[in-house]
Each structure stands twice: as C-alpha cells, then as structure tokens.
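Quick start: read one record
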Amino acid sequence: MMVDAPGVASVGPGLSFRDCPRKDLPMSHALPTITAPLPRRVTLAVCAAVMATIFLVARQAASLAPLTPHPGLVDAAATLDLTVVATLACWWLLGRTLRWSPVALLPIYFASLFAAGWALPPGEHAALGWLHVAAAPLEVAALVLVARNLKAGRGRLATVLAYETSVLGWGLFLRGPDATRAPGEPLTYHRGTAWGAIVGALLLVTAVEVVSVHLLARMWSERLAWVLTALGVYGALWLVGDWRACKHGPIRLDDGVLRIRFGLRWRLDVPLSRVAALRPPTSKEMATKRAVDLRLALPGSRWQVLELDRPVEAEGIYGLRRTVRTLGLGLDEPTLLAAALEARNHGLPTDRETP
C-alpha cells in the first residue's frame, strides 16, 4: 500500500480508497445500475422462449388438472398464466426495447385470450369464459380508440390497415396501372429483370407447399392446419401484389422530387436538391450486402448508388422506418434520372411532360 496524497491510500495502480464505495452507503449506490435495454434480436428471442415456456407449462398443467384434487384451481391457474402472466411478461420484455405505449397491452391481452382458447383442452374453458366477459369493456375501449385513430389517420393500427389495403388492392387486381394517372415522369425498374418469372416459380412452389403442410398439420390439429393454409395464401397474395406494384407503380420524378415506390416493400420521397451524387457502385459495394443503407433493386438489375447530403426516412412494411443516406437504386434507364439531376444543377425543369 502506498500513500499518494494526504489521507488517500493507494491500493493498486489507478485505484485508491477514495475511488472505493463507502461502507456507510447502501449497495444501490455502490453497484452499477444497468439501464440500457438488451439488443432487439436478443429481446425478441428471450420473449419467444418465455412465451413458449408459459404455453407448454400451462397446457400441460391444464391437461393434468382432472387428476388433481382441485381441478378447478389448476384450470384457473393455467388460464391466468396464458393470459395475464403472458401479457405482462411480453410487455415487460418488449415494452422498453420497442418503445410501446401502454395501449399495446390491449392487443397483447386479446391475442393471449385467443391463444389460451387454442391451448387449453376443450373441457377446461370455465375460467377463460369469465375472462372473456371481463374483457368486454376493454374491447369496447379498444374499438373506440381504433375508430379515433383511423378517423385521424394516425397510429400504428392505421398504418397497418393502410398497408393491408394496399396488399389486397394489388394482390386481388383491384388496382391497375397508374402510368397515365399519376403525375410526373415514370422511371421503371422491372423490365430488365426476371423477377416476374421468379414470382411465377415461387407461386407454384407455394401452392404445393400449402397443400402438403395442410394435410400434414391436420394430423395434429384441424385449426392449426387452416391457420397455416391462410398464412400460405396470404404469402402468395403478397407475392402477386408486390410484383404488380413493381410493374405498374414505378418510381416517379414529380416537381423536383424523386418519389420512390418499390413494390410493397419501401416508399420514400427524395428531393433532388438533397442528391449529392449518382454513381456506379464500386466492386466492394457490389460484393458487400450492406454497402448502402437501402438497396432498391430487383434481382438481376443493374443498380447505381444515390448519395444524399442529408438523411431521409424510408417507410417499409407495416410502417417500419429506416433512416437512409445512401441508396442502391436499380432503374431500367438510369440516364433519365441523371438527366434530371443535370437539369437541376443548371436550373432547368427537373421533369418532362407526362404523355
């Protein structure tokens, strides 16, 4: 032990008794506090593991309830685990990481009621029935909240419904070509690719897979089989809608703004005044998957790097947001965009008359 200064004893290199926690302070002052949330992927994995554990334990307990002295209590406990406990656990694990508002507890709870009805054996739904009755006021409150958000055009639910409407519109052929209706000069990005043939092949594979999975899942649960079938049909509908949106909803130059609509995947508006450069990708960028912030190019297309002087926000599937400053943009005729940028630099109009 060495003395560095009057009243300060050194206990090692760079550490003195002055740096050590005082004995008269509580442990909460002496120990570090972990406030940062876990990474999103880790949190989602932990939440999935916790939900699966609650589901399996509660289902097993409910199936063994008739063999216990008090089957009603066991049934009630399993039901509460699948509903209340699962809802609070999901909220506690995901609320901080995903920054959910307390309103998110309502859809989580309603989803837990549905999961409990599917997990519990047919004769063990007594406690679940009472929870459905108790949830009636919450359902009314949720409907009122949804109606207010939809009327105002805001909120996550409004974004999700708008996206689903777009998927159904394109997938069911309710929306057609808008080349003659939308303003601005169209910049197509699908003609030089084989994405249409790829989508056709994926649809054939999906059709075979949906039938096979349905027949296989029926061996365990009729309800599960139809849920998986519905998911497969929705996937096929999304593929059709995305291809038609790529084909008939091109990127547009409109009044000095590059309005990017990339299928059903991404949408963003880029003012031409924010474009710093339009250049071919380097060999390193071609080989690296994440060389640019967002790559908007169909398989087989030649893409160029669009650099911005300031970041812009892109909106993806179900309202997913991403801040981007470099874009990998695959266009059939990139010279049209280059000409528009050149015209902007010389003070000329940035879009031509649409025929």
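The first strand starts at residue 2 and ends at 5.
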